[in-house]
Amino acid sequence: MTAPILAVSGLHAGYGATEILRGVDLTVGDGEIVAVLGGNGAGKSTLNRTISGVMRPTRGSIRFADTTIEQEKPSAIVARGLIHVPEGRRIFPNMTVRENLDLGAYRRARPRRDANRNKVLAIFPRLAERQRQRAGTLSGGEQQMLAIGRGLMAEPRLLILDEPSLGLSPLLVEELFVLIKRINAEGIALLLVEQNAVQSLEVAKRAYILDNGLFVLEGLAADIRNDPALKRAYLGM
Q: Which of 7, 71, 139, 196 could join 63 in a cystine, given CB atoms 3.0 to 4.6 angstroms apart?
């Protein structure tokens, strides 16, 4: 593995007295795609929210680019280049596509906003056609493209994608994972947090299986893809 750009160690987090994450360790190498797989309630969103600073861990450490960040504000974490594209897209429906994209560069990369927008629109031609359209009128797949594009506007060193394929048609899911590989080819590391095990393991180098707040399986994606435990628990095989 390449030197880790993200290193999570002994992470505990939850809501009030309810502990969700119970001591997880995770690394993402610079330029690597790592998948975190698990069903509903496994703790995936809590993991993402804690890494990106939306939640404070109760124990453990998070290092990003050799800096401890578990006590930093989300805005400071964004400024370092760790960008979280949340589940549910969270776009601004009454703003245009272009306005949503430009907001992505507000905290980081503002001087290069126009150049970055051109890059994003080259990756997502459908967004280029709809720049003046209100974001709320886009299809579900286009809104997901917009959410990812807004994340790319900040010039991420690491992009966390939280359930990016949720609610998309099979054809759009195929297109999405092609785009994920294209984004990674630009040198951006990705933490892909998904329920779609089959597609995620096709693009990831390594993977972790999260269940009830713990990683129950981890290793090379090719090995996990053929592990009987994964097939029983997540693929129904």
A: 7
